[in-house]
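Technical annex, item 7. During the second reporting period the consortium partners agreed on a shared format for inverse folding records so that results from different sites could be compared directly. Each record opens with the tokenized structure and is followed by the designed sequence. A conforming record, contributed by the partner at site C, is shown below for reference.
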């Protein structure tokens, strides 16, 4: 999936939406001003300013949160894509581990750690453990 293409599309739509909102801010203010001048209704100017303010608040909100959402969504998609396509995301099991003779508790702890991490099989673990038990 081409996330860069979707990001550009989202960014373009965000930009278009912002232009429309700012156009509505200016248009509502000018409409109120024109009505106020032509009819001498000062309330029309206040209504136009109020509507312009509402659109301005909407534009600011969309500007802040829209930018965050678009940017963060792209970053999240990039990270997700890297994880899914990464060859190193899951370490391969080490095939050949040679385990020497277990002589003390430290060696036993290392053996247990190898077993818990899935580096050695049950059979190998039981063999080495039985060797350690019989030798001590």
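Designed sequence (site C submission):
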């Amino acid at each position: 999936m081409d996330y860069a293409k979707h990001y550009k599309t989202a960014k373009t739509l965000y930009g278009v939406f912002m232009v429309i909102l700012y156009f509505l801010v200016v248009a509502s203010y000018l409409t109120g001003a024109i009505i106020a001048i032509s009819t001498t209704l000062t309330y029309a100017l206040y209504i136009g300013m109020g509507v312009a303010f509402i659109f301005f608040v909407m534009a600011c909100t969309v500007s802040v949160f829209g930018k965050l959402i678009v940017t963060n969504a792209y970053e999240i998609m990039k990270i997700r894509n890297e994880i899914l396509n990464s060859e190193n995301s899951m370490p391969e099991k080490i095939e050949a581990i040679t385990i020497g003779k277990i002589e003390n508790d430290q060696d036993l702890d290392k053996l247990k750690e190898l077993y818990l991490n899935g580096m050695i099989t049950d059979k190998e673990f039981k063999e080495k453990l039985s060797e350690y038990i019989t030798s001590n």
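The first helix runs from residue 3 to 39. DSSP finds four helices and no strands in the chain. All partners now use this format for quarterly exchanges.
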